[in-house]
Amino acid sequence: MKHAARLLTLGFSLALGTAAAQSPVEVQLWTWYLSPKFDNYIKDTISAFEKANPGITVKWFDKQDSMVQDFLSSVNMGSAPDVVNLNIDETSKAAQNGFLRNVDALTPAATLKSTFYPQTLANFTIGGKVYAYPWYGSLNEGVLLYNPDLLSKAGVKPPRDMNELLNMVKTVKDKTGAYAWVPALKDPGGASFLGYFFSDGLPIYDASGKAAFNSPAHVALLQKYIDLFKAGYFPEDALRKEAFQLATELYPQNKVAMIVGGPQALNRIKDTNPSLYAKTVVTSAPLGKAKVQTGTSMGMVIPAASKHPAEAAKLAAFFTNNANQMAFAKIVPIVPTTAAAQNDPYFKKASSDPIAKATSLVGASGRYINPGFKAPGNSDDLYKNFSDNIEAALLGKKTAQAALNDSVAYWNANMKK
Amino acid sequence: MIRAPRSKSRFSLRDTLMSYGFLAPALILLTLFTFYPLAYGSYLGFTEYGGARFGQGLPPKWIGLENFRTLLADPLFLRSLVNSVKYLIVVPVLQLASLAVAVLVNKNLPGMAFFRAAYYVPVVTSISLAAVMWDWVYNKDGTLNWVLGAAHLLSRSSMFGWLNNEYSAFWAVMLVTFWRGFGYYMVLYLAGLQGIPQELEEAAVLDGASSWKRFWSITVPMMKPTILLCSLLSTIAALRVLEEVLVLTNGGPLNSTYTALMYVYSKAFQGFNFDYGLASAAGLVVAAVALLLSAVNFRLFRDSSGDSV
After folding, report:
1. What is the predicted pLDDT for the residue at B7?
2. Domain of B235?
3. What residue intervals traverse the membrane (chain B) (predicted)?
4. Which of A145, A215, A321, B220 is the least crowded, having the fewest Cβ atoms under 10 Å away?
5. Predicted confidence (pLDDT) per residue in A387-404, tens digit
């Protein structure tokens, strides 16, 4: 009788197992601005994942400017995606508003710690929980690209730190007519100038978590930029366009001598002015007084409304593992966020091609990816207020001190914890 | 006087059912996509909804007039509302210009088909393409400064980026709105002009009326319904300006081009800190202004007999 019962149980188990194998789980993956350029990479990675996980199929969508709205609508309609590609800031906002599952509940914390750099995990840690599998990153001060003809005409050498760069801005413009560099003065979606404070070792928050970016040192740094802007040493459009967009527009026209940023700027220069691209020299980026890099990375998050979180976690972990991040780094100069990437021989190859050189300079620097400050609660309103104040100071409507005081007061009154 | 015998019912049940059957698809679509969103959006304006509340699946919470109090205390909203109302300056200019050009291209002269099409091209040009083009025009080294410089109206040292200056950006963006809307209203006016009976014009010519007299005594009165329609449409469009502001200035510099709809959009759809309740309340305020201005339009274009056109 016991034997018969065991056989019956085994039969049921096998039948259930077969049924489960016959109904594969479909996982919906959303990437951000990756199609059509990286279709092959994404499709190949999905195929490899499906081959390694026969019970799971992946339905991929690439979202572009409507990513956040689509995400909100899908949650509202009960058809939330399972894995979504968000950056650090958006992950932080989504987690603060209860949209995401903490991934350290889906993948053991020890596995996450052994796979990724501690800082990249910290970037996605909100309230002590990890909310994303860190994916590809970029460094704001990854490399310095420069037009050697313009620098030689100005009689200056490539700057070694931010102080040197700011000091040569006048000389380059006066002697060549080209802007030396386009600083990130105003970012419509963020508060990029805070990055300059962090780079100079100036705090954004005090020990109690309150905004504290209005000390005399903060004011003095902002004043340097204001003086240069008012005297016409930075393009007027820097208040209206993102620095990266403007710099990559002006550099190929010989209107900007240097770009501080990631190697991705080189792709655009290669397309628009191949001869200048060939001449472009790539070297280490100038850093602020704190000698730290800033940067950002993408992550893969699991929405709280996902119906298949376990399978989603498998897919996100697969996409962000070292092998797949390295495969991505070989087709576009991203900075992998996996700790193993720092030892990859690919980043140690010597080359005279600017993109290859930039890739080898920054590719293994994932440990430095750090936005420099955590997005505050209610960040959209706070960033807008900060940017408005910086703009008012640059346009002479407020003094640097008043602009920073006003912004700090607004932040402390409106920051949601 | 012989009266016709009155039938018990003017329409049979079959006719009634058939009428409603024909109306049903449109009514269902209107209910789904217009009346329901309108009612739900209005309701949301009196609730706290969005952010963490939405993320955690909690329903809207009724808070009465709190959102409206928040709006009144927000200098950015007040600034955006003032900008939107100021934006209405484009309406009469746009209407007069498109009516005048419609009258000109309505003539059967050689080459008129080309002009009609040419004026319509901006209407079908995508805003991203238009933004790149106008960026070249308004840039510090752009076409506008070059033309003004060549005409000795602006010296090299006083040139500036028209979209980077808080005093010029608003008008520069408004010109793009004018450029984009002009062809659309011109085509509507052209359709209206072609509906005016030819014999009226001919009779006036026989009576010796000048072309100016014919325009004011025949064309304008006959065009009143079209003028009202175009005026209403462009008033509402001016209050709803968003795309050109977003792509050209993103509301700057110093929020000088920040419009009410941009406020609604940023609160509802930008980032994860969206606030549907506050955005809906702001939308209701904009709708109230639009209704008020529509009433003004009806009043202005009421004809001499006192009936609205």
Report:
1. 53
2. 49-54+61-305
3. 20-39, 85-105, 117-137, 169-191, 276-296
4. B220
5. 999 999 999 999 999 999
CATH number, domain A24-139+296-347:
3.40.190.10
Per-residue pLDDT of B225-238, as tens digits, reads: 899 999 999 999 99
Q: Mapping DSSP to helix (H, G, I), strand (E, B) and coil, where does residue B175 land?
A: helix
Q: Between the CA of residue A281 and those of A157, A241, A263, B186, what are the distances in Å?
A: 12, 25, 12, 54
pTM: 0.84
Q: CB B161 to CB A236 under 8 A?
A: yes
Token pair of B265, please? Answer: 């959009």
Give domain limits for chain A: 24-139+296-347, 143-292+371-414
User: Is A91 at the interface with chain B, CB within 8 A?
Assistant: no
Q: What is the CATH number of the domain that holds B209?
A: 1.10.3720.10
Half-sphere exposure of A162 (CA within 13 A, CB side): 23
Number of domains in chain B: 1
Chain B neighbors of A76, CB-CB under 8 A: 54
Q: B270 vs A380: CB contact, 8 Å cut-off?
A: yes
* pLDDT digits 0-9 by tens, B157-172: 889 999 999 999 999 9
Q: Looking at the complex, does the CB of residue B274 fall below 8 Å from at least one CB of chain A?
A: yes
In a domain, B7, yes or no: no
Please list every residue in chain A whose beta carbon sits closer than 8 Å to the beta carbon of residue B145: none
Residues in A touching B140 (Cβ below 8 Å): 236-237
Edge to edge, what strands does the sheet with A281-284 contain? A258-261, A143-146, A281-284
Residue B9 lies in a domain: no
Statement: A143-292+371-414 belongs to CATH 3.40.190.10: yes
- CB-based contact B160 A68, cutoff 8 Å: no
Structural domain contains residue B108 = yes
Cβ separation B272–A239 shorter than 8 A: no
Percent above pLDDT 70 for chain B: 94
Q: How confident is the model at residue B53 (pLDDT cuts 50, 70, 90)?
A: confident
Q: What is the mean pLDDT of residues B238-263?
A: 92
Q: What is the 3-state secondary structure (H, E, C) of chain A?
A: CHHHHHHHHHHHHHHHHHHHHHCCEEEEEEEECCCCCCHHHHHHHHHHHHHHCCCEEEEEEEECCCHHHHHHHHHHHCCCCCEEEEEHHHHHHHHHCCCECCHHHCCCHHHHHHHECHHHHHHCEECCEECCEEEEEEECCCEEEECHHHHHHHCCCCCCEHHHHHHHHHHHHHHHCCECCCCCCCCCCCCCHHHHHHHCCCCCECCCCCECCCCHHHHHHHHHHHHHHHCCCCCHHHHCCCHHHHHHHHHHHCCECEEEECCHHHHHHHHHCHHHHHHCEEEECCECCCCCCCEEEEEEECECCCCCHHHHHHHHHHHCCHHHHHHHHCCCCCECCEHHHHHCHHHHCCCCCHHHHHHHHHCCCHHHCCCCCCCCECHHHHHHHHHHHHHHHHCCCCCHHHHHHHHHHHHHHHCEC
Residue A74 is predicted with a pLDDT of: 87
**Average pLDDT over chain A, rounded to whole?**
89
Any domain includes B271:
yes
What is the H or E stretch that residue B47 is in?
Answer: strand B47-48
